[in-house]
Amino acid sequence: MTSREIIAKLKSLSNPKNIEGMKRFAVGGKNTLGISIPILRKLAKDLNREYKNDANTKHKLALNLFASGIHEARILAGMIDEPGLVSEKQMDSWIADFDSWDVCDQICMNLFGKSKFAYEKASEWTKRKPEFEKRAGFALIACLAWHDKLAPDEKFIKFLPIIKRESTDERNFVRKAVNWALRHIGKRNMHLRAEALKTAEEIKKISNKTARWVAGGAIRELNNPKIMASIKK
User: Fold this and answer.
1) What is the pLDDT of residue 28?
2) Which residue, 32, 53, 85, sits at the end of a domain?
3) What is the pLDDT confidence band of residue 31, given thresholds at 50, 70 and 90?
4) Least packed by Cβ within 10 Å: which of 54, 112, 176, 233?
5) Domain shared by 54 and 2, yes or no
């Protein structure tokens, strides 16, 4: 399938009723078609199978899909692109065009978290001012903490001062990502749980409502008996 054919396929799957439901969860930016994630995953699976031995074509398709500006096409782009072909320039360009938290999180989870630039960009983007660019930094931290099972603890301990530094950003999509990153670091193992809780207690002392919210959510989750039972020693 060409990028034009894929976009035509996406448009044929448009569901206006879903668009209204998505709005309730602040999902979807401009040019939203209302296609569910499971349907996009099925299409991505088919495309990944079709281009299994042609990484360059998949990469070009992903670039074209993202450039279309269609919400679901951008999520699909992150599902089919080749992490090894992703450049720093592409990553910086894409996050500058994010207009929805789900596009941000899906692309960080499915693509950017697998890039060789992931740790560098996670740290760098947390300093950005635009809301979704900054969210991308913390979403990437959360995704790395979740998926990079072999990474040493030191890589995540380095993120804790950054989380503390940005814990007072009251913008909804930033504060939620800051909290998400802190919780996921703490759930990697008991050592990082202790370090994350220590950071949360420091954040809790900051005279700021948003910081207290970030800290409180992390402390509650990391002290939850069910969560504690699931954390590796």
Assistant:
1) 64
2) 85
3) confident
4) 233
5) yes
Distance of CA 146 to CAs 6, 185, 190, Å? Answer: 31, 8, 14
Q: Which domain holds residue 156?
A: 92-233
What domain count does the chain have? 2
Q: Are residues 71 and 101 in the same domain?
A: no
91-105 pLDDT, tens digit per residue, is: 999 999 999 999 999
**For the chain, how far is it from start to end, CA to CA, in angstroms?**
47
Is 144 in the same domain as 37? Answer: no
Residues 172 and 107 in one domain: yes
pTM of the predicted model, to two decimals? 0.93
Name the band, by pLDDT with cuts 50, 70 and 90, for residue 232: confident
